[in-house]
Amino acid sequence: MKLGRLNHVGVATPSIEKSIAFYRDVMGAEVIREPFDLPAQGVKVCFVDTPNSQIELIEPLGESSPIAGFLAKNPDGGQHHICYEVPDIHAAKAWFEGKGARVLGEPRIGAHGTLIFFVHPRDMGGVLTEIMETPRPGVSH
Ligand SMILES: CC[C@@H](C(=O)O)C(=O)SCCNC(=O)CCNC(=O)[C@H](O)C(C)(C)COP(=O)(O)OP(=O)(O)OC[C@H]1O[C@@H](n2cnc3c(N)ncnc32)[C@H](O)[C@@H]1OP(=O)(O)O
Ligand SMILES: [Co+2]
């Protein structure tokens, strides 16, 4: 597998509204997308555009949110995951499994509307890694 484009850095936050104010007023972000709920992933999401990538703000949605444990340990929030693009999600899953890395669940639709999966941080040098199929040109995500 060839390492693809960095799509986004996930940042967990207890309050997307407060984080939006931070990225706007302190970081000078000019393009901050409208937040939206993603119940299937247990998070509320807001994309902050940078010139070459995106920051993905994620706030827990519901008590069983996958980021609840992270926020319990880091109540002010923090860097949560890094997401790389790949051309073929199923080939990428087979690649990581072949390397003995723990893929967390089956590929599912992520915030950009393409298939994603996560690889366990303990098998990825301490970094929770999201793998995302590259959006196709002409399809809006
Ligand atoms: C917006 C949708 C989507 C997108 O399209 O972009 C998203 O990004 S959704 C983002 C949220 N979803 C997920 O994170 C799903 C995958 N995550 C998980 O399955 C779990 O969070 C986890 C990675 C298995 C961790 O589970 P948890 O119960 O929170 O913690 P543990 O105590 O079991 O952790 C085990 C181990 O891993 C360390 N850890 C946990 N989270 C992270 C992290 N974000 N970065 C680095 N390390 C992390 C934790 O400290 C434990 O370490 P040890 O104690 O040393 O074993
Ligand atoms: Co993400």
What does this structure look like?
The structure is a single chain. This protein is α+β, with helices and mostly antiparallel strands. It has an eight-stranded mixed sheet with strand order 2-3-4-1-5-8-7-6. The protein is globular. Strand 6 and strand 7 form a beta hairpin. Helix content is 18%, strand content 35%. It has one domain (6-133): 2,3-Dihydroxybiphenyl 1,2-Dioxygenase, domain 1 (Roll), CATH 3.10.180. It contains three helices and eight strands, in the order E-H-E-E-E-H-E-H-E-E-E. Belongs to the methylmalonyl-CoA epimerase family. Residues 5-134 form the VOC domain. This is Methylmalonyl-CoA epimerase. GO terms for molecular function: metal ion binding; methylmalonyl-CoA epimerase activity. It comes from Rhizorhabdus histidinilytica.
